[in-house]
Every structure is written in C-alpha cells, then in structure tokens.
Amino acid sequence: MAVINSQGSALYYASAATTASLITCPTDIQVSGGGTDKIETTCLSDTHHKYGAGLQNSETITVQFNIHTADTSHQALVDLKESGAEKSWMIVGSENSTAPTAAGSVMVAASGRSYMSFLGFVESLDISIGIGGIWKGTVVIQTNGGVTTDITP
Predict the structure, then answer these.
(1) Structure pTM?
(2) Residues 5/94, Cβ–Cβ less than 8 Å
(3) What are phi and psi of 70, to 5 degrees?
(4) In the chain, beta strands by DSSP E
(5) Bridge pairing between strands 106-108 and 59-66
(6) What gap in Å lies between CA 145 and CA 127, rounded to an integer?
(7) Which whole-number Å values give the CA distances from 74 to 9, 20, 84, 113, in the listed order?
(8) How would you class 122 by CB atoms within 10 Å of its CB: exposed for 0-12, middle for 13-18, buried for 19 or more?
(9) Cβ atoms within 10 Å of 57's Cβ, excluding its own
C-alpha cells in the first residue's frame, strides 16, 4: 500500500469549456468542513437529547501559494474573487504527471491519479508581504454541492 506524496500534487480549475488551468506554486492545500447538521428529535418524555442527521455542509478549500510575477493563474484568482464566478476545480495526487482535462467547463480526472473535484467560487484572497520574505497568497474556495474524492485511481 503506497501513500500519496504531497510533492507533485496540483490544483486545477476549468478556465474555459475545454481548458484546464494549473494554479502555480501552491505550498499547502487544506480541505475542511463538510460536517453534517444535526436535527434535534428529542421528545418531552425523553431523558436525553436525541438527534438525527441533517443536511451536509459544504467544504472550504484553503490554498496557500507563493506569488510569481506575471503569473496568469494568480491573476486569474484575483479575477475570480472579483467576479464571484463558480468554477469546476480539481486537486490531483502525485501518482503521475498526467494533467486533468476539462469538458463542458467541468474538470475530468486523469487516469491513474487520485483526485478531489468540486464546484466552487473564490470566497477570499489574502496577500501577505513580510520583511525578508516573499509575497504569499491564501485563497479560500467555498464549495457548492460537496467534494468528490477518489483515492483509488
């Protein structure tokens, strides 16, 4: 059983109907949230609270990246934040270097590569500029409809 190395993983989005664009130089990607709401079903005669499962909440994807001058993918993140446009996104594993594709503005997984795919919009984009450092960005993508995960390509 092999692990999925972080080095070689990548983030893509469908920038056009048949174009999958790579986000340059991510340094960390975190998928969080997605918990299920709880619905209280307790009766007055119960001695303990009772709950049922409700709707599943959407995940947020937080991506940290090093900003590169004249990088079109980083400018695209700025533009996506300003427009609020929903896009198809895909995080791919390091098993090989075959890039995913896009069809009908939806990301399509590459064969033999683990992935997480989702629809989402850029909720926020922060830029950090510090002494003795480089410009770094953090983008938060709010998903709509959950994240599809396949770690057994």
Answers:
(1) 0.90
(2) yes
(3) 60, 20
(4) 10-16, 19-22, 26-33, 36-40, 51-56, 59-66, 87-92, 101-103, 106-108, 115-128, 136-150
(5) unpaired
(6) 28
(7) 17, 15, 15, 24
(8) buried
(9) 13
**pLDDT, tens digit, 9 for 90 and up, residues 57-70:** 999 999 999 999 99
If 0-12 CB within 10 Å is exposed, 13-18 middle and 19+ buried, where does residue 81 land? middle
Question: Cα–Cα distance between 56 and 94 in angstroms, integer?
Answer: 29
Rounded CA-CA distance 134/84 in Å is 27
Provide the token pair at 106.
């939806």
